Amino acid sequence: MSQNKDLKKALLAISSFTLVFGIVLWVLFSVLVMIGVSSTGLLRIVCWIMASIFMVVIMIGLIVCFKRLNGIRRQIMLNNIYVKLKELGFTTEEIDDRQKVFSQQKLSRLKNTSRKLSKYIEEKRQTK
């Protein structure tokens, strides 16, 4: 479970970085646009080119950060499923076989699997 705590810290760090990164570049973009609108000649062209470059950097940076966030969320879900399967009494080899299948699934499907396992574990506890 400490691995999940480390992953959650990484999730928080990346999302905080994404927010700060986006805000700073957006402010720079806005300043360049304001300068570009109010100026003339070569300065106007340079400002618009720099603003366009900043916009592309913002978009690429946000896409990369969100992909990392999804990767971390996926790993947290896989760890949760591993713990739940272990709790149900599966052996490590059986869990590894299932993890190969789970690692190919989408995040929403992993969440549903985790919920179903939780319900099954809860029902099993209540019947004991």
TrEMBL record:
<feature type="transmembrane region" description="Helical">
    <location>
        <begin position="12"/>
        <end position="35"/>
    </location>
</feature>
<keyword id="KW-0812">Transmembrane</keyword>
<protein>
    <submittedName>
        <fullName>Uncharacterized protein</fullName>
    </submittedName>
</protein>
<keyword id="KW-0472">Membrane</keyword>
<feature type="transmembrane region" description="Helical">
    <location>
        <begin position="41"/>
        <end position="66"/>
    </location>
</feature>
<keyword id="KW-1133">Transmembrane helix</keyword>
